[in-house]
Amino acid sequence: MRQVERRAADRTETPRQLWYAAYGSNVHPERLRAYLAGGRPRGASRWYPGCRDRAMPAESVPVELPGVLYFATTSPVWGGGRAFYDPRAEGRTLAVAHLVTAGQFSDIAAQEMYREPGTDLDLSRVLARGRDRIGAGRYQTLVYAGELAGRPVLTCTAPWRVGEVPHLPPAAAYLRFLATGLLTADGGWSAAAVAEYLAGAPGAERQWSAADVLRLMA
Length: 218
Fold this sequence. Notes:
218 residues, 6 helices, 7-stranded mixed sheet, two-stranded antiparallel sheet
């Protein structure tokens, strides 16, 4: 597992390549492929248009981010709660960092925001300030999580904190993508550790036990 280096967000230029830190279902390569190349992953109700550049990431590595994973709001794609990330909360978030171009990150983020891909986001503010709220929607807040191998690590989440929204358990199909994606990332996380991590996340603990998550991974 690679370590994300905590650094102040003080970049003045957007690099050609950066790390997209996936903490939700995009930790799974099949799900990410739909965002990049277009398509509909198993268990989802939505078809994704894909990115302008449909190449898979140059590299994908397991990482741990400071902060907390939680589930809230109802996903129109999966049903049940969606995964969000609060970088300001105490804890750790298991993730997979995908090395993509700035244009690919823009198109992935657009699809997360239910927008049409095809326009480069202005990443200068999140790289300079560490956070950039570009809309009021669920994944319209960009977060700079640090540096990995000299490149910035970015992700997107909701504007609120973990304790500012009602939590909602995730659906089985969605949770299965998270669990199996993290397990296959080869980050040294055992099946039991992944199951305990997901079952203990705010929202999931209302419905799922570690034993339940293990059964989804079987």
